[in-house]
Amino acid sequence: MSLLALTGMFIFGGKKEKKKKKSYEEILKDAEERFGVPADTIKELANLYVFNASLPRLVRHAHPEKDLEHVMRITGSVDRGDYIHISSILDAKWHEKASNANDPRAVKFVLLHPFIALILSHHSSAETSTIGRAVSDALNVYYGQLGKTYEDAKKEQDKLIEYILAMAEYNHIPIVKEKLREQLRQGLPKAFKIVDKLLPDNSKEHAILLQNALRYRVKDPLVLLKQAGIDIEPELEEFRGFLAEISGKKMEAELPKAGTKTGQSLTSADLAKAKLEVLSIINGLEFAGYSDDAKAKAIEKLSARIAELSKKELTPDSLQAIGLYAFALEMIKTGAFERLREVDDL
């Protein structure tokens, strides 16, 4: 190094060190301090910004005809074979801001978005991705620019409605403004009810449950949610009726399943819990790349659950739960990981 360069370093304090990049744990800790929510809870809530591939499959139950393709079109969703990319949400500026900040206050906007899109679509009879983009444009302003949260939206629905109307016009969606305003005032409270029931307390446990239900491999999230004790069918039915009313579409009739009575649960609490735990273990194994350590922990957990249930009085339901744990245990021990996904279809 030349004398001139050395002199410059001496005068100006030497070379500047690059700022150390924060670890994910440090980022979560910062978010904890900023939002007043435990870091481990923020982590699971923030995962919903990413793990939401089956959201269109859930939202289709709010459609009068349960039309998945309609929901896919208006949200700009593309099935890529192992993931559904919901472009109107995932490519939006508000989503980028919220996910980068790990903001737990905006997670429910991900769930709310497609329900607003359904209202817009059924009002206008338009079925293009512009619908979903208009909803995100409204959220870009409401959350992205104004910093308003989901809870704010519930308290000041008229303000959110005005942004939705403005962005519908901006995106050249054919609307009758006053009529749409009235319909949004009717429909938004119904949508909020569904979203709040999906994620009732912003807890870590409910966030994990919803993540599992919205995985790509889950063909019908409603089934898994119901097994875990989250029954949103009455709210979905109300929303479907509302959409049918404003659009003139007929609702698809629900036929009772053979051998069941209306309102009767198809699974016990033990069996529902077992399936949820096994799916959670499977997802954990996948994320860990089926490492030896992850397999050992999974085997330990499954063995403990079998032992725990075996100590209780045996019932047909608990026996099935034990069988489910035992199946998963054997598949992990033998390395037959592809068969673990058979649990999804139960």
UniProtKB/TrEMBL annotation:
It comes from the Archaea. This is Uncharacterized protein. It comes from Thermococcus barossii.
